[in-house]
């Protein structure tokens, strides 16, 4: 039987961390002596490709001080962020049903590991853009599939951004939009998400249905 995998984002999906991510970037900009935008504008303009986001706002990663300077702040703040209990329960159920479960995120691996441990969630793999210096979700998805030895047609991804949908379309992975993060239901649908949810109550059923096709 072919291996099947459920890949999921971290920020805005497993954890409600919009304000955390905002505060981290705000602190980083202030460290650079730059003013930062409002939370409302941040939600509208933030990109999954955080390197591009920084460059568009005048900060070139690799030329300025390393972004690792805010790692500790993020880890401390995200530890206080709330998880979606229905998503956590769905991940446990999917794992028990034999699906490989992996977190594929632009975030920080140490923070993800700590939060999952606190919530008692076991996963097969964590692939992050921060440690790999990869901000393109397409490349992160490819890396995760390679490590899991799973073909795109046997995987599904859960994410909260239009860029997640676009990346999955490029790789050939089905995408379930999670409409409680950065982008709302209409935007995720318009981007081409195969399904859109606002909690994890129907996630197990939808995953099983998608991966049967």
Low-pLDDT runs: none
The neighbouring-strand order within the major sheet is 3-2-1-4-5-6
Shape: globular
- Write down how many β-strands occur, each being a DSSP E stretch of 2 or more residues: 6
Number of domains: 2
* Second CATH tier, the architecture of the largest domain: 3-Layer(aba) Sandwich
Radius of gyration: 16 Å
Main β-sheet, in a few words?
6 strands, parallel
Under CATH, the topology of the largest domain is which? Answer: Rossmann fold
- On the 0-100 scale, what is the average pLDDT? 88
The CATH homology group name of the largest domain: HAD superfamily/HAD-like
Q: How many DSSP helices?
A: 11
**Strand content range:** 5-15%
Could you describe the 3D structure shown?
The chain is an alpha/beta fold and 213 residues long. The protein has two domains: 5-16 and 82-210, Rossmann fold (3-Layer(aba) Sandwich), CATH 3.40.50; 18-78. The protein has helices spanning 18-31, 39-45, 50-56, 71-78, 85-96, 109-119, 129-132, 137-148, 162-171, 185-191, 203-210; strands at 5-8, 100-105, 125-128, 155-159, 174-178, 195-197. Strands 3-2-1-4-5-6 form a six-stranded parallel sheet, sandwiched between helices. Helix 9 links the parallel strand 4 (155-159) and strand 5. Helix 1 runs antiparallel to helix 4, helix 4 runs parallel beside helix 6 and helix 8 (137-148) packs across helix 9. The longest helix has 14 residues, at 18-31. The model has no long low-confidence stretch (mean pLDDT 88).
